[in-house]
């Protein structure tokens, strides 16, 4: 691995200042960044470790929202009694990300900033109509995800927390790649103040997306039966060694029905 300067800021403001350096990279859990550096895919001159910023950790429930600090680990979300009561599907999602080591290192903010097309958290954020808060603004889920491994974040912008509206009902289903535990297809469904939302990860060539045709069916009848025989177009879906676009298209309504229960 190449030489680089390591910064351990104690506040978000300090992290933003350090991130203004040329060729610097922010690091949350380091699950993707360190591997990319080892492979020589990137060579930052400085790494800013966000792990010591206490203000970016923790979970609160108030005013119909579950607010989770960006530095909160997947394991902490999964184990949170508050999340389990308010949005059980979100706790369930977090409990099956990667393996135990990944869940105890990886963070909510790091997952969203990386925006891997097969990651689980983007489906929850889009499927619940969450809001991503940064050091300078708040972004609706639809505005945050912009494409494959890309988001609306500026290079030196730091995700500080995410607010998830508490839905009336929600569910999560994941058809995983057994080795990596990433989603071949993952579906998060919810019904709440924002209506019915169905968000899909692992299948889209451009990352997470909403399955609006399934949303319409569930808005008329929130039941698994409402999706019986429904089909999703394979256009613009992924094909790889784990499954064809047609295979993924077939999985989406099946997993959506299971998520509804």
Describe the structure.
- The model has no long low-confidence stretch (mean pLDDT 95).
- A hairpin with a 2-residue loop joins β8 and β9.
- The chain has a five-stranded antiparallel beta sheet.
- The chain has helices at 12-19, 33-38, 74-79, 81-86, 88-95, 100-105, 108-114, 121-128, 141-144, 212-220, 245-260; strands spanning 5-7, 24-27, 46-49, 59-62, 65-69, 131-134, 138-140, 145-147, 150-151, 159-165, 169-176, 183-192, 195-201, 209-210.
- It has 261 residues and is an alpha+beta fold.
- The protein is 32% helix and 25% strand.
- It has eleven helices and 14 strands.
- Among the domains are: 1-54, 2-Layer Sandwich (Uridine Diphospho-n-acetylenolpyruvylglucosamine Reductase, domain 2), CATH 3.30.43.10; 169-260, Enolase-like, domain 1 (2-Layer Sandwich).
- The longest helix has 16 residues, at 245-260.
- The N and C termini lie far apart (47 Å).
Largest sheet: 5 strands, antiparallel
| Distance linking N and C termini | 47 Å
Instruction: Provide the CATH top-level class of the domain at 169-260.
Output: Alpha Beta
Number of strands: 14
Uncertain segments: none
Q: Name the overall outline.
A: globular
Number of helices: 11
- Summarize the helix and strand pattern as letters: EHEHEEEHHHHHHEEHEEEEEEEHH
| Structure classification | alpha+beta
Instruction: Write the CATH fold name of the domain at 169-260.
Output: Enolase-like, domain 1
If you compute it from the alpha carbons, what radius of gyration comes out, rounded to the nearest whole angstrom? Answer: 18 Å
In what range is the share of β-strand residues?
A: 25-35%
Helix content: 25-40%
Average per-residue pLDDT, rounded, comes to: 95
CATH architecture of the domain at 169-260: 2-Layer Sandwich
Strand order of the largest sheet: 4-5-10-6-7
